[in-house]
Amino acid sequence: QVQLVESGGGLAQRGASLTLSCTASGFFFSSYAMNWGRQAPGQGFEWLAGIRADDFDIRYSDAVKGRFVISRDNAESTVYLHMNNLKPEDTARYYCVKGRTWSDFTVFGTRGQGTQVTVSS
Q1: What does the pLDDT look like over 23-61, one tens digit per residue?
Q2: How large is the average pLDDT for residues 88-114?
Q3: Which residues are bridge partners to 39 per DSSP?
Q4: Where does the pLDDT of residue 110 fall: very low under 50, low under 70, confident under 90, or very high at 90 and above?
Q5: Cα–Cα distance between 111 and 102 in angstroms, integer?
Q6: Radius of gyration of the chain from Cα atoms?
């Protein structure tokens, strides 16, 4: 059974940094791309970043490119989202999403319960 557990959210001030973690179990982590997405109240689910299973293809949405960095540790079955220069509009619940394949950069796969990030101005 696929399980994804996010952590690291919280309250931050504008310009601050946070690092989110997602620990996975129930599947062969190093064979699947992993993604991060978010959902703000009243908004749709937004894809933010994805990393291929072998770490050699990394992609970002325009909203976070240059501020957020996705990384993964296959030995620890963990994917990270390092968030820098946070803005109030980054306030949302953040989810890690298992890719459906080695290089699936979408949010259609299994997601965790999420972790809340709130950025104050």
Answers
A1: 999 999 999 999 999 999 999 999 999 999 999 999 999
A2: 97
A3: 93
A4: very high
A5: 16
A6: 13
Burial 51-80, CB ≥16 within 10 A → b, else e: bbbeeeeebbeeebeeebbbebeeeebbbb
| Amino acid in the structure at residue 5 | V
50 closest CA partner among 112, 115, 105: 105
Mean pLDDT value of segment 77-102:
97
Full DSSP string of the chain: --EEEEE--EEEETT--EEEEEEEESS-GGGS-EEEEEE-TTS--EEEEEE-TTSS-EEE-TTTTTTEEEEEEGGGTEEEEEE-S--GGG-EEEEEEE-SSTT--SS-S-B---EEEEEE-
Could you read off the pLDDT of 11-26 as tens digits, one per residue?
Answer: 999 999 999 999 999 9
> How many other CB atoms are there within 10 angstroms of residue 21's CB atom?
17
- End-to-end Cα separation, the chain, in angstroms: 40
